[in-house]
Amino acid sequence: MTYEPVIGLEVHVQMDTRSKAFCGCGTVFGMPANTQVCPVCMGLPGVLPVLNEKFLEYAIRTALALNCTVANYLKFDRKHYFYPDLPKNYQISQYDQPLAGHGRLNIEADAIKKTIRILRVHMEEDAGKLIHTAGGSLVDFNRCGMPLLEIVSEPDINSAAEAYAYLSQLKNILEYLEVSDCDMEKGSLRCDANISLRPAGQTALGIKTEVKNMNSFKGVRDALNYEIGRQEQVLRDGGAITQETRLWNEEQQKTFSMRSKEEAHDYRYFPEPDLVPFTISDETIAAAKQALPELPAVKKTRFMAEYKLSEYDASVISADKYLALYFENTVKQYHMPKIICNWLMGDVMNFINTNQVNIKKLDEVLPVKNLVAMVQLIDNNTISGKIAKEVLAAMLTGGKDAATIIKEKNLGQISDSEALEAIIDEVIREQQKVVEEVKTGKDKALMFLVGQVMQKTRGKANPQIVNTLIKKKLLGNA
Q1: Cα–Cα distances in Å, from 98 out to 37, 102, 219, 375, 407?
Q2: Residue ranges in 76-190 assigned as alpha helix (H)
Q3: What is the DSSP letter of 155?
Q4: 10 CB contacts (<8 Å, ≥6 apart)?
Q5: How does residue 264 score in pLDDT terms, banded at 50, 70 and 90?
Q6: Which residues contact 319 (CB under 8 A, 6 or more apart)?
Q7: What number is the average pLDDT over the span 338-345?
Q8: In terms of Cα–Cα distance, which of 365, 377, 368, 379 is closest to 403?
Q9: How far apart are alpha carbons 445 and 125 in whole angstroms?
Q10: What CA–CA distance (Å, rounded) separates 159 from 233?
Q11: Exposed, middle or buried, 390 (CB in 10 Å: 0-12/13-18/19+)?
Q12: How confident is the model at residue 263 (pLDDT cuts 50, 70, 90)?
């Protein structure tokens, strides 16, 4: 029997506000434990929460970017549970009337495009953080009250690859909106997955497990692939899936049972009495929608139309807001979009990934004017494309401009015919068999000889001039 995975994702995103959701405490990451707390986020008697206006603004902006319908009526609820990192013993959240819902996110995975529906987007505050040591467990309440947006998908995801694509696309949108830094290492973006298997072709859902403790998009993909395999093996062996919460262990590449899970938690939700419900006007929603920036999908389409990029190239360049901005700033000075795209997607991105450079700082590492100057040196035959790779590597690591590097390393292209003819004559003497093939009209043989000259000159020879000189010597034409 063939089984189909059914996956729904719950993503918690910390909004990048300067203060917490319902008090004035700071939100700076990495501060000493319990130094960003106050009576409000610690839940001391007699305090009153006040909604952070910027939190609401960012939440509405995100919901609209995800094609959700934003509710006109906003209310908060208390979600009760008892845990050491929750000093109030309840969390301010939203239950039956979330901020927004009925959205969608378009993805592409394994060359298949599909739409993932978004069930709901709601606002809530974060809990604290438990720190487990050999001597016991400590609690840091700095994170209590941090503004969170929970984005819940419908169970429309059918593979780990689709989950990875969904999270990547969601992260791109959030970064374009500048509402979160989406840093999973800081806990700014966290993801839980609900996964079940069902016989292919059936519509009824199977028993699901919830998978937690996935600290990267790769971790999500690996955990889901493992859990799909584990559940499939249980079913094939005649067993039954237990509804439970499981933790992903990155080192062992396995999930482990954490606790059994009831059909539904009794969190004893009731309306938050200290936050008065209020309305969000249609005008406010319309103004927020009008103020949305150009989002990745729209930018991708524009890049294809305006710059004639392929769908793949446009997808890569538009995926990161700051890479797209760098690309457009470069094209303004050197209107050869495909050439710039190739350099960015190749050598530049390889350097960024290898050295973990923040793309926001790319213009500091490689100023646009320096990249433009380098490609112009290729155009005027000062350097070859091969030498340009060496020059670019030096530019990225040393910060110097291309002209300076070429002078210091003597990398200028050899275009002098007399100098090249001596090297060509040497290659002809060494490659008599290939020479005969050239004389019979074999283009590959001709290119081989050109390559030999380029090799002897360490890529500094002008390939067009070399090609012309070899033809003239061996074929009697230019």
Answers
A1: 27, 11, 29, 52, 63
A2: 160-177
A3: S
A4: 150, 151, 152, 153, 191, 192, 193, 194
A5: very low
A6: 168, 172, 296
A7: 96
A8: 377
A9: 69
A10: 17
A11: middle
A12: very low
Residues in the chain, overall count: 478
Cα–Cα distances in angstroms (integers) from residue 295 to residues 14, 177, 292, 345, in the given order: 20, 8, 8, 20
**Which tokens is 272 given?**
């938050």
* Average pLDDT over the chain, rounded to an integer: 91
Task: Write the pLDDT tens digit of every residue in 201-246.
Answer: 888 899 999 999 898 999 999 999 999 999 999 999 999 999 999 9
Helices (H), 116-209: 160-177
Enter the DSSP assignment of 461: B
pLDDT band of residue 459 (cuts 50, 70, 90) is confident
Q: Beta partners for 192?
A: 10
- Residues 6 or more apart whose Cβ sits within 8 Å of residue 65: 173, 176, 177, 292, 295
Domains, the chain, ranges and CATH?
A: 3-286 (no CATH), 296-409 (no CATH), 417-475 (1.10.10.410)
Nearest Cα residue to 207 out of 257, 184, 236, 241: 241
Query: Residue 425 — pLDDT band, cuts 50, 70, 90?
Result: confident
The alpha carbon of 142 is separated from its chain's Cα centroid by a whole number of angstroms, namely 27
At 123, the amino acid letter reads: M
Token pair for 283:
């005008």
- Assess contact for 357 and 351: CB atoms under 8 A: yes
Range from 17-26, 404-413, 436-445 that averages highest in pLDDT: 17-26
Please, are residues 37 and 25 in contact by the beta-carbon 8 Å criterion? yes
d(CA 436, CA 22): 83
**Residue 441: pLDDT over 90:** no
Name residue 403's amino acid: A
For 48-74, what is each residue's pLDDT tens digit?
999 999 999 999 999 999 999 999 999
Q: How far is CA 169 from CA 106, 116, 148, 165, 298, in A?
A: 8, 11, 19, 6, 13
Nearest to 123 by CA among 163, 186, 63, 82: 63
Average pLDDT over residues 29-48: 94
